Amino acid sequence: MTIRNRLTFTFTALIAIIIFISGLAVYLLVADFTERDFYNRLADRAILAGQLQLEQDELSAASMAKLKQKSRHTLMSEQVEIYAKEKQAWLARPPQEAALLQKVLPRLKPNEFKNFILNQNQAVAYYYTDNQGDFYILVAANDLSGKRKLGYLQLALLVSFIGSILLVIVVGRLVANQALDPIATIIKQVNTIRATNLHLRLSEGTGKDEIANLSQTFNQMLDRLEHAFASQKNFISNASHELQNPLTAIAGEIEVTLTRDRSPAEYKASLERLQSETERLEKLTKDLLQLAQADQQEAESQYEPFRIDELIWEVLEDVKRQGPCAAVRLILEDLPENADNLIFSGNKALLGTALKNLLENACKFSNQKPVSLNLKADEKEINILIRDEGIGIPAADLRNIAEPFFRARNARGIPGTGVGLNLSTKIIKQHGGTLSIKSEEEQGTEVMITLPIVA
């Protein structure tokens, strides 16, 4: 069942229940009032009968005339019977009636009324006391007028109920359509969005309701999808290009070498070139793998507390051990007195990779000039400043320097993949930090890392 039909059905069912209960309550109240009113009229007739039959010796002629005038307005199928209490003449009635009256009449108290049903008629028994003795006055009648009115009321309520339900169905369908039309519009717009037109967005309208929130949330998701698709497309394009270069160089070197026989020295030189290209390919593949893993580990990383200064010492030793690098001067002049301010909670391996990439870049592009690393910390954040005095980054390239595979024009002659800085930026952001770069061509580069300390 569609939501549209479900809303219509639910709306109709609720209103139907309310109308039915209201109609039933009205009918029961009217029926109860009609019944009590008729019993009151029977009681009045019983009193009138007692006065006419038993008070003649005590009333004046004028009073009797008034009573006789009132007695002319009889009820439908009215029956009036008066029984002397001592004689119990009611026992002469048919057995079922006699048994019923025997249960009702002897239990009456003086001037008490008793309402009951006698032969499908409403009846009132009245204990009448007089100077002539005690009597039971029985008045029975059929309230055909009241029953007819109740029948009309039933018909009116039934017709009103059916008409109301039909009206509610129509109104419910209109309300459901009005409520769900914006969703239908959203579905129609969503169905037009493909991988080739992820720039399209849903109309958010000017409202502040849930539908507008849904459109805004969906558009935000489309923003993320578009960015992810663009990043993926750019990544594949750049990766294909970067992987093709060393593979082409390897294939070309092999092809040239195989064109003729060569001396051992030439073969050795060719193998060394192949080894260099293979190492370059291996480094590129490793960087690509780390870049992909960094995205995956954003949700999977297991954070643990560690001292940031100890991590820096480990990274420095690793950088010096794995490749030639100018002296790195470690500045620890502004360390906090409280050692707890140096404890950071994060993925130690990933942060180590980020710092290592940044230090390797500083060493690689420093022109053999000194590189410094300055560590500062307080109770709110940790700041790591890496500075070199090398070739710097041209101003035109600075805005794109963190893009994957992007290399500044003055760095293209230096071995590298263009992945390390992008990887470091991602890792720092995953840990809630920021990475900013200031650089001037031929003057050097400053990389500032800021990591928040979460209590």
Fold topology:
Layout: H1 3-54, H2 61-71, E1 79-84, H3 95-104, E2 113-118, E3 121-130, E4 133-141, H4 144-191, H5 210-257, H6 264-300, E5 304-307, H7 308-322, E6 328-334, E7 343-346, H8 348-364, E8 371-377, E9 381-388, H9 395-398, H10 420-430, E10 434-440, E11 444-452
Parallel strand pairs: 6-8
Antiparallel strand pairs: 1-4, 2-3, 3-4, 5-7, 8-9, 9-11, 10-11
Helix pairs in contact: 1-2, 1-4, 5-6, 6-10, 7-8, 8-10
Mean pLDDT, nearest integer?
84
Global Rg: 51 Å
Which percent band covers the strand fraction? 15-25%
Low-confidence segments, ≥5 residues, pLDDT <50?
A: none
Helix fraction, binned, reads 55-70%
First-last Cα distance:
51 Å
Enumerate how many helices there are, as a single number.
Answer: 10
Number of domains: 3
Structural class: alpha+beta
- CATH names the topology of the largest domain as Heat Shock Protein 90
Largest sheet: 5 strands, mixed
Write down how many β-strands occur, each being a DSSP E stretch of 2 or more residues.
11
Based on the coordinates given, report the CATH architecture of the largest domain.
2-Layer Sandwich
CATH class of the largest domain: Alpha Beta
Secondary-structure element sequence? HHEHEEEHHHEHEEHEEHHEE
Which geometry do the CA atoms define? rod-shaped
Could you name the CATH homologous superfamily of the largest domain? Histidine kinase-like ATPase, C-terminal domain
Biggest sheet, strands in spatial order? Answer: 6-8-9-11-10
GO molecular function, one term: phosphorelay sensor kinase activity
InterPro entries: HAMP_dom, HATPase_C_sf, HATPase_dom, His_kinase_dom, HisK_dim/P_dom, HisK_dim/P_sf, Sig_transdc_His_kin-like_C, TCS_sensor_his_kinase
Catalytic activity: ATP + protein L-histidine = ADP + protein N-phospho-L-histidine
Enzyme class: transferase
